[in-house]
Amino acid sequence: MTTPVETLSEIENFSFEDAMKELEMLVRKLEEGRVPLKEAITAYERGTNLRKHNEKLLEEARLKIEQISQDTGGALSTHPSPLEETL
């Protein structure tokens, strides 16, 4: 059985799209209501971790977009966000 630490490190490698796809699958599975309680709790926990992962990715994307600026010549450039410098 996968431990929570293994699950979190696995999820950290997911793209936003892959995490969203799995999260949607888990939600459908839970909404059907035919999942044993223990499995439902495990699915809920994994779904929560997937949601947190995607929130982190969205926040990183938002910060990066905020760092895009236009110089006097009209060219766009990016500047590292404080978050990127700490990662």
Automatic annotation (TrEMBL):
It comes from Caedimonas varicaedens. It is found in: Cytoplasm. One of its GO terms (cellular component) is cytosol. Bidirectionally degrades single-stranded DNA into large acid-insoluble oligonucleotides, which are then degraded further into small acid-soluble oligonucleotides. Its EC number is 3.1.11.6. One of its GO terms (biological process) is DNA catabolic process. This is Exodeoxyribonuclease 7 small subunit. One of its GO terms (molecular function) is exodeoxyribonuclease VII activity. Belongs to the XseB family. PANTHER family: EXODEOXYRIBONUCLEASE 7 SMALL SUBUNIT (PTHR34137:SF1). Keywords: Cytoplasm, Exonuclease, Hydrolase, Nuclease. Heterooligomer composed of large and small subunits. Pfam families: Exonuc_VII_S. The keyword Hydrolase applies. It catalyses: Exonucleolytic cleavage in either 5'- to 3'- or 3'- to 5'-direction to yield nucleoside 5'-phosphates.
